[in-house]
Amino acid sequence: MSLALTSAITSAFSSARNRRIPFYVGVAIMTMFLLFTLFPGFFAPYDPLAFDYTQLSHPPSLAHPFGTDNFGRDVFSRVIWATRIDMQIAVFCTIFPLIFGTIVGALTGYYGGWLDAVFGRLVDLVITFPFLVIVIAIVAVLGPGLINMYIAVSSVGWVFYAQLMRADVQVQKQSDYAAAARVLGYDEPRIIFRHLLPNAITPIIVYWMTDMALDILLGSSLGYLGLGAQPPTAEWGVIIADGKNFMSTAWWIAVFPGVAIVLAGVGFSLVGDGIADYFRRRD
Amino acid sequence: MTSGSAEPLLSVSGLRVTFGSSRGDLVAVDGVDFEVGLGEVLGIAGESGSGKSVTLRSILRLVRPPGRVSGKVTWRGRDLLTMAEPELRRVRGGEIGVIFQEPMTALNPVLTVGLQIRENLKEHTNLDPAGRQRRAVELMDQVGIPAGKSRLEDYPHQFSGGMRQRAMIAIALASNPRLLLADEPTTALDVTIQDQILKLILRLRSELNMSVILVTHDLGVIAQTCDRLAVMYAGRVVESGPVASLLRRPRHAYTQALLSAVPRAGIVRQPLASIPGQPPLLSALPAGCAFAPRCSLAIDRCRAEYPPLQEVDGDHFAACWRAAELVGAP
What we know:
The complex is a heterodimer of chains A (about 280) and B (about 325). Chain A is built from 12 helices and no strands. Chain A has about 280 residues and is mostly helical. In chain A, about 45% of the residues are buried. Chain B is an alpha/beta fold and about 325 residues long. Helices cover about 30% and strands about 25% of the residues of chain B. Chain B is built from 11 helices and 12 strands. In chain B, the strands form 2 sheets. In chain B, strands 6-7-8-3-9-10-12-11 form an 8-stranded mixed sheet, with helices on both faces. A 4-stranded antiparallel sheet of chain B has the order 2-1-4-5. The longest helix of chain B has 18 residues. The interface between A and B is medium-sized, with 18 and 32 residues.
């Protein structure tokens, strides 16, 4: 849903003059979430964990813009505090894959040979399994919780970065400027990481943005399944899971965190598209 | 200039480059010999596929597998083909600089020109950061890039084609190499810019007392710039000698045919001669002279036996059975 919405927004502003608008929209959304992450106490009117038995399952009102849940907790405050956890998921799930996958991809793409063969088979092995299935399997073995979720996603997610990087480095290493770097007497680590890598990093950055959006969705799914963040921690997926039993009587508990997830997905994707667009035009 | 000085700077002998393929080895360069003296400009001419670029690239071991290089490339007494990698890296860029045909693609698009110059200086000189910056500005000036200091912070795509080639020369020359290898440095440029770049290379040659190997398919460029010339065909040197005598009195049927295919200004207009046919495939080289199938002077011997490279005149060599008959022609 996030991705469909993103492409709808992007195509609505396809004229040359307005092409940057979706990017700015994305930046605005991300800025908002960043502020929520850094200063949740400033935006949230209530304690996200405080029960208030006088305000059980109240619909949205001025006092509680997103309503309250079955324990009387303010949904608006919970959604804002959850931003911190979900942004943490986005970063912690992708930082290791980003760095490790990029390095592995650059080295295998440049050297080929046995190194490429070994890592190539490892990559094949990992992508044989559906991503969600293998992550759930790992979390199930390690036990539910955020840390184990980071471990599970990291141990699988790097292969996609490695694949992207490997393909691009294989192209870049044939280029004239790579030959020029070689005849200037530079050693191979320098050629790979200083000359080839910056030229091959664009798809990685764009994928990274998408990956963060997907990991928020994944975190929410695992939270919903009880494998990620544990209640009563405010996390979007957990809040939705809490609210799903009350969909017919108190729809606001599940809908507003859902909107937040979609919005975060759209924000990351728009920023990613904007970066990709910037690099395309610079070429 | 001073051709044939006692000790050549670079001497290539028996250079052979083969590429393994599914149908056996293809011989791209077959037994090439030449020498470059101090301050000398050697031209290597030939059609596409004649092996001239591969020859140039194999000097610095730029030919990657499945290509294999054998022979001897002696650089100031050391064999570059067997040298250890760290020592080779000091020669590359430090003692021998290279410029490529396409200034569009041979500069790293994501690094500023200044950074690329300073990187070479950092690798091959002992200058401190301030010294490197000063030298970079000086180099921009030396290769004729106006407002060099501010342009150091520009990226390659902000330069025009000619300026990019100048920037590439500045990078290649940063640490004062003794030899410049130029692989078709002017082919991708406008004619007017071509002339400027050639003059620049010649000026730098004498200012820095550097030798140059210039690979090109353009005989006009050779006539304008080189001291000596080696003509290549199908992976071999077919004729070599001082440019003046070689271009005035070619002693190989191929060189002669090439020269009559060059348009000349100032004489009565006549149809340009072209060389019929195409260069042979490396996978199907004829037994005798590789040029024989296209040669109007070919005799039976040419088709049967490969002619050796022989001295036909003082310092002028040709590998042609009909060399004697060519005297005085065009």
